[in-house]
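From the shared-data thread, chain only:
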Amino acid sequence: MSDELKLSKELIDNVMNTVVAIDGRAKDPFVGSQYLAAIVGYVVGTSSIPSEEKKEIMDELSSFMHHVYQDVSQQPQQQQPQSAPVAPPGSAFGIWKPGDS
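Structure, as tokens:
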């Protein structure tokens, strides 16, 4: 079994389409990204591993996310898909409460 992730535009589009189907505001890449970050936090937070390991995992995932961001940001502009405008930094943030669905 390969250790490589099978990340593709099709996979990303399918995931984002699912999120947008639940909340149309997720068409905004900033809002859509908040959903993905919240999902990661939820999955790690509800796992049955020790708290210290959860913190390490979150730190590693944050670094990995930055690595992927840097890789795709350095690709030539014509290879990147068109995207909607992003809200200015600090203009919005997600609030998650246990039990929200």
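Residues 51-73 form the longest helix (23 residues).
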